[in-house]
Every structure is written in structure tokens, then in C-alpha cells.
Amino acid sequence: MSRADFYLIAKPRFLTEPLRLVCELARKANDAGLFTLVLARDQAQAEELDELLWSFDDEAYIPHQIAGEDMDEEEALVLIAVPGTPAPARPLVINLRDDPYLADCDRVLEVVPADPEAREPLRERWRQYKALGFDLNKYDM
Q1: C-alpha R_g of the chain
Q2: Distances from the Cα of 105 to the Cαs of 13, 17, 61, 86, in angstroms?
Q3: Which pairing describes strands 92-95 and 78-81: parallel, antiparallel, or unpaired?
Q4: Sign of CA dihedral 107, 96, 61, 25
């Protein structure tokens, strides 16, 4: 059974920079050796995340790249994909887009913004995953 984990942003360090939470999640996946697909909303977000993964922690090295920019993307543990770019299936998906991720994976991570209005679509997404039989979890971050 697939699993969906919702990470609710609440801590001050993530409120102003929610992509820092994505970096933390990517670091945990990297440390566990999990091939991860990050679904960015657009090219600008993908580039911002790419830069942040290099700089968010001086002691962390997370092999990553943006899909379609290099021939060796299968080797990168963290692959960032923009809409319209084909990306390989990965066991772990961090979804930053507006729609639920319904393709094959073991686990999908959803980052939930602190803004109450932005949370409403994610409540619907929770219901969608639940209806599909996903095992659901919520974490306050």
C-alpha cells in the first residue's frame, strides 16, 4: 500500500522559506539511500531548490539535479522535475505541485504551507489519497 505523509509548516525556520523543509526531507531521503523525485511547480522553483540544496547546510552533500539537464540523472539520488519534463519513477516523491501524485511510488510527501487559505486544497488532497487507500500521516514541522 502506498503512503502519503503531510508535513505542516509551523516552525519559524520554515515559515519564510518552505523550501528549507524540502531540503531537510531530501537530506533524510539521501541519508537513507532513497531515490527521490521532487515535483517542482515550475522552472523557477526548481532552480531555487537546486541552489538551496547546495547551500542550506555546509555539512550536507545531497547529489541532485534538475531532470533533463544532464545525461546522468539516473545516478542523482534527488531528481527535481518541472512540469512537462519526463522523469523516471522513484520510490519517494516530494510533491510541490497543486495536484496529488497518483503515479506509482512507495511514498509521497506533501508540504503544507502555513497559510490557512493555502491549506484548504491540501485537505482535499488528503481526502483523495484516503479514497485511494493510501496510508496517511501528518507531521507538524
Answers
A1: 14
A2: 29, 27, 24, 15
A3: unpaired
A4: negative
Q: What angle do CA 26, 32, 20 make, to 5 degrees?
A: 20
What is the spatial distance between Cα 135 and Cα 129, in angstroms, rounded to a whole number? 8
Question: Grid coordinates standing for 129?
Answer: 489519497
Roughly what angle, to the nearest 10 degrees, separates helices 43-55 and 19-31?
60
Stated as kind and residue range, the H or E segment containing 24 is helix 19-31
CB 20 within 8 A of CB 14: yes
**39-73 pLDDT, tens per residue?**
999 999 999 999 999 998 888 889 899 998 766 66
